[in-house]
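BUG: 3D viewer hangs when loading the predicted structure for this chain

Environment: internal workstation, default settings.
Expected: structure renders.
Actual: progress bar stalls at 90%.

Input used:
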Amino acid sequence: MSSTTRLIGPALVLLTLLIGSGLDAQPQPVLPRIAHAGGQIDGKTYTNSLEALEANYADGFRAFEIDLSWTSDQQLVCLHDWEESFARSFGLPPTEPVSQQEFERLVEEHSPVTKCTLASFMTWFSDHPDAVLITDVKERNIDALAHISTHYPQHQPRIFPQIYQPDEYQRARDLGYENLIWTLYLYPGGTQAVLNTLPGMELWAVTMNSDRSQQNLPRELDNLGIPTYAHTINNYADFLYLKSLGIDEIYTDSLSLTRESNIIAAGGLSPADSPLFQASEARARELAERIRLFFDLPTTHYNLAEDFDPASVTSNQISRLKLTARRLEITASGSDPYINFPPLESPTSDIGVYIELDVPDSTVAEIFYTTQSEPEFSATRRKSERLDAGVNKLVIGLNESSPITRVRLDPGTVAGDYLIKQFEIRSRSRPRSLFRFFRRWNQ
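Structure tokens produced before the viewer hung:
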């Protein structure tokens, strides 16, 4: 059963009333489609403008995400940020926050659309009583929600705040907001960390980017009856693909229900037409080819199953390191675990590293390496790979002008149990070289 069918309580009643109250509104699902930054207008995104609100309301949207930023005089205006977004909006260099009055002057003189302030948005909001606001405030979010609840308490039931970190949840609830969305793009934890944090939180929805949407998190949340959104999705085939993975609805610039109906009527699209799906399939094919090419390399420099000796490695934030059945079991005690493998006896400037790694949560693995000319590990000589919870296969190529002398594996950035099922270093040339050390490992 889809999580949308299990969405109950005040939020559902409110949305049903709001969506049904507009005579000219498009038919909507229980979870509304959300217009990102007010929705697209004239091909432009992130305008957060009154014109975008009006145009996308007319196109059937009833839920609007709006970016809000603080001015120098502690007012809120509809702007994503004072850097890139400011420059794009006004054709001016990035700036420190300006006053609301100066912001309004810039809008009048430099913007082709009427970027709103909180006050002008609320005037529009009052005139559209079936609309819902989803807030996006990246700095001092709780202060902004307090400001809104103090000055516009009459609209609070129609305001669905986004929170970014778990510690914002109770503070937002204490301000009187009942329908909270946890957006994950600033949350550093992985899938399991999200699931471990959810007990005790009553959320209206969880929203995530397309990368997280393609992990197992949407299905896990669906099993818990928690609705999910993906952002920012403008391709209908991408939406179909993400729905097949458990996503319920989307934030979008331009994929209104009217446009979606026209696409459906034209027919022919399926999840297989999704660029996201096709990119995922291409990555899988590329990985399979890289694995094949790796095992065609003739020279083995290191093989975990044959060469591992605990005396030959050093480690950090690892409380357990045990070789069992030719696999290395690791317990990481912190967020920066790593293993320094012994020096290569026959350094070469072009090597491949194959890793089969079971990780406790979605995370990032890194390979650091040294060379004869640069003998210390450095962040300038590393390769990173994003991992999903569970088993991952990686092939990492390293190429330097100076021969590579050592390799360090950082298996992830979360504490917990890891399992290195396979770790091997190969190259195209040089005679086979095994490390010289005493085998002292007692299984």
